[in-house]
Each structure stands twice: as C-alpha cells, then as structure tokens.
C-alpha cells in the first residue's frame, strides 16, 4: 500500500475512500504529497477544507511509520467535530475496502492512532491561545505533518514556535484559512514567502480557493452571499467567498455620494408596513434624537423611509425626553407605532419614564451579541449587525434617509473592520472621537436601531382583548411604583 500510494495521494483518495477530489482539492493534494512540503491555502466558503484535511491526515498516518499529525486551531472543539466527522466517514470507506487496516489503527471520537504506538504514531489536536504559544512546542518526528486551521488568526510567535520543530527531512506544514487580515506570517506566506516566477527561492506553495469555482457550491448559495455581504466588492465577500486578502483591515461603511443619493431616492414599501420610532438619548455632550420611520420587511428585505427626525439639545433631561417621545408618538398620529430607545446609560431613565406614562418601549442594548449562531459567527455584536444591515439597505436602494447634510455626514464616517476571527466589528465611539475626531453619530444610530426592532403593521387591528391586557399590565406596574 505504501509503494502504491505514497507518491500518489490523489489515487489514494479515490481508491481508499471512494471519493473524487475537486480540481481545487487536487491542487492542494499534489502540493502536500511532496516530501518536506510547505502549503498555504486561502479559502472561501464551501471549498471542502475540512473533508480534505480528513483525507490527508488519514493518508499520512496510514502510509508512514510512526507518523505524527498535529492539528492546531483557535477553536479546537470545532475542529474535532468538523474534521473528525469526515475522518469517521472516510475511515469507514477505507476499512470496507481493506478490512485488515482495523488490526493496526483505532479511531475514537477525537483520536486516531496505531494500536501499538499510541502517543507516538497518532493524530493530535492542539488549541491555540494568544500568550501561551510555547505550549505548541515539543513536536518532533521523522514524519510530521502540521496542519494549522484558520491560520490567519494564529499569531506570528505561535507559527514561529511550530516551524522551529520542522527540523527533519519529511516534516510538512499545511496552513488553511479565510484571509481575514493583510498582515502577519500567513499573509507573508502568500506574498513575500511564496514560490512564484518572481520569487523562485520562496518557501511556500500558495493556493487560493474561490468559492465561485467550487463544485460544492451552488449558484443559489453565491447569490445569497452576494445579498448578505453587500455585493462582490464588499470586504466580507472578498474574504469569505473569493478567498482574497482585504486591501485594508478597516474602512468606512459608506461613501458620501451613496448617502446623498439615499436622501433623494424614492423607496416603495411593501404591504403591511408599520411605524417605528427610534430614540438615541444624549449624555450632555451628544444630542438626543427621535427618528420616526415607516418600515416593511425583515432582515435583508427590510425597507425604511424616514418620515420625521427631531433633534434635541444634549442638555435635555432624559425624563423630559421620555415625555416628549410619549407626546409625539401618539396612536392617533402613528397607529400601532413601535417605540425603541437606546437603553444604555441615560436611556434607561427615558425608558422608565415612557413606561410610567403608559408606553411599552423596546430597550436597545446593542453591545450584546446576536441571538442566532450564524449571526454570532458573522457579527461581534448587535451594533455591528445593525450598521451592516443599514449599509446594505442604502447600497441596494431600500432606505431613504432624511435630507439633512448632518445625517449624510455621520453615515459616511462610520469606521468598521474585520477581526482575526473573520467577524465584523464597529470602532468604539470613544476611539472614533479620540483617534479620528469623529463625534457620536446620533442621527445615523437611530436608523441602525430600526434593523434590530420588529414592528406591527399600521393597519392591523390590535383588538379589544389585547388593549385590555395592556391596560391591566400597565395598571399593575403603577401599583408596583406606588409600593416603591
């Protein structure tokens, strides 16, 4: 078996596991099978990275005596559940064809090893933690394969520790990752350290896996990501689909011309639209803003039309602002209106005042994480989600903002970036003020709030039963207030 497959991994994939590698996977396989190879891969979604990792580690383990495979990752649990899911499938296929392999190798939920050489001839998963890079040292073997998952987020020091162990002839290294930052060792492995006609002495074989070219990705999936990420030129699409390094790690959400067009455009709402009033409460330095809007749809289909925006001096008392919101947002003017208030800091007093007056405001705390796992994987918190949704609505023509140049000025100066985990994050407001001299974007924030608030259609009849329930709930709160 070693003679047959050791220098033909592609044949091993087909004949051992019954799998046909994609042209993209084939390119990686041919690179990794070289003795002492160094392979670095940027990849978008759905290119088969986990399945490929599983195939390679099984081949390497089976074909080389006392082989050692070490997988290093930030989220080791995810690697174990992801990669080892494929390992189980491919191992089952291999022992159907060559049952005698079971006499030599053992597969558990998170381990694969040779029966008589456990601890030496095995697959090992190691977790990476910033500041604890030395824990990755000490891996030496004549046949060693290091696999770095999501390598873009692993520090240069950690990679330096691991490459320091590659001292023997057949020590190989494979790095795979979405290219989340244009700096560091992983970035250099695709540029200054990569082998190419201009750099024949390069160390690394650089490979880019574009999701658009993957046979495992459907056209519908690409269309969905174009919609989610805000177009082919967006930072996320470049990194997570095209597999390309971003030109810069940070930027601004929108250009001024896009914001000016959004103030002039006509946006048609869907049937069943509703009223939403969003409020940002000032803290003495920043102004208090009430924004009344018409909205329809949800998430990527939400449409927003500014109806009235009212700006108060920052010195306005939060309780007085609560009274102002209550008096302005009456049901006779705006049927079934939903009131949402930034409840952090002074906003909590405004919410409490609205409750005392008989309203039921939505409390926005957008520093908290998103609820759905797919959103947690993409956004650091609700603030990042709301800003990106608002940006995409403007870019796709689904939002009309007010005509004030102050709103366009604020919307065109919102810094954001992608962190090393590939998640979007907004620059903290204190950093905006200190580093870039950008004031708090109070007016723009009220538009962003709209994307994390639900609404009730303006023409929907709430009904007498619901009204009675609301009155009973509010009266019970009055009793509590009196007791206090």
UniProtKB/TrEMBL annotation:
Q: Which domain of life is it from?
A: Eukaryota
Q: Which InterPro entries does the entry link to?
A: P-loop_NTPase
- What name does the UniProt record give this protein? Terminase
Q: Which species does the entry assign this protein to?
A: Callosobruchus maculatus
């Amino acid at each position: 078996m070693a003679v047959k497959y050791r220098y033909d991994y592609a044949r091993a994939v087909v004949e051992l596991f019954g799998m046909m590698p994609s042209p993209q996977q084939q390119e990686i396989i041919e690179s990794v099978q070289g003795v002492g190879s160094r392979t670095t891969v940027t990849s978008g979604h759905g290119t088969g990275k986990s399945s490929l990792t599983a195939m390679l580690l099984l081949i390497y383990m089976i074909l080389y005596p006392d082989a050692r495979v070490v997988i290093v990752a930030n989220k080791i649990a995810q690697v174990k559940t992801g990669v080892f899911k494929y390992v189980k499938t491919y191992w089952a296929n291999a022992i159907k064809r060559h049952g005698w392999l079971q006499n030599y190798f053992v597969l558990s939920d998170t381990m694969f090893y040779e029966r008589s050489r456990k601890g030496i001839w095995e697959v090992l998963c190691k977790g990476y933690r910033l500041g604890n890079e030395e824990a990755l040292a000490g891996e030496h073997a004549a046949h060693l394969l290091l696999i770095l998952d999501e390598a873009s987020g692993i520090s240069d020091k950690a990679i330096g520790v691991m490459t320091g162990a590659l001292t023997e002839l057949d020590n190989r290294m494979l790095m795979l990752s979405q290219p989340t930052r244009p700096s560091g060792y992983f970035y250099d492995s695709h540029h200054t350290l990569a082998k190419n006609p201009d750099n024949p002495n390069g160390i690394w074989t650089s490979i880019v896996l574009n999701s658009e070219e993957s046979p495992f990705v459907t056209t519908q999936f690409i269309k969905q990501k174009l919609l989610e990420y805000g177009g082919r030129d967006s930072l996320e699409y470049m990194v997570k689909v095209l597999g390309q390094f971003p030109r810069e790690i940070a930027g601004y959400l929108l250009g001024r011309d896009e914001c000016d067009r959004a103030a002039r455009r006509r946006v048609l709402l869907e049937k069943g639209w509703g009223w939403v009033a969003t409020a940002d409460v000032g803290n003495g330095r920043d102004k208090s803003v009430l924004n009344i809007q018409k909205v329809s749809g949800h998430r990527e289909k939400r449409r927003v039309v500014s109806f009235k925006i009212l700006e108060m001096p920052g010195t306005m008392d939060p309780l007085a602002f609560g009274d102002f919101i209550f008096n302005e947002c009456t049901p006779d003017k705006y049927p079934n209106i939903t009131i949402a208030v930034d409840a952090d800091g002074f906003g909590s007093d405004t919410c409490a005042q609205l409750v005392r007056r008989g309203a039921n405001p939505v409390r926005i705390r957008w520093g908290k994480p998103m609820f759905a796992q797919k959103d947690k994987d993409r956004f650091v918190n609700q603030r990042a989600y709301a800003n990106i949704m608002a940006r995409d609505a403007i870019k796709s023509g689904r939002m009309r903002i007010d005509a004030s140049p102050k709103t366009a000025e604020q919307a065109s100066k919102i810094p954001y970036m992608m962190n090393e985990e590939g998640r979007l994050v907004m620059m903290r407001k204190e950093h905006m003020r200190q580093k870039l001299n950008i004031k708090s974007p109070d007016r723009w924030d009220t538009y962003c709030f709209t994307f994390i608030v639900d609404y009730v259609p303006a023409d929907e009849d709430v009904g007498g039963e619901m009204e009675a329930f609301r009155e009973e709930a509010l009266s019970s709160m009055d009793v509590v207030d009196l007791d206090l």
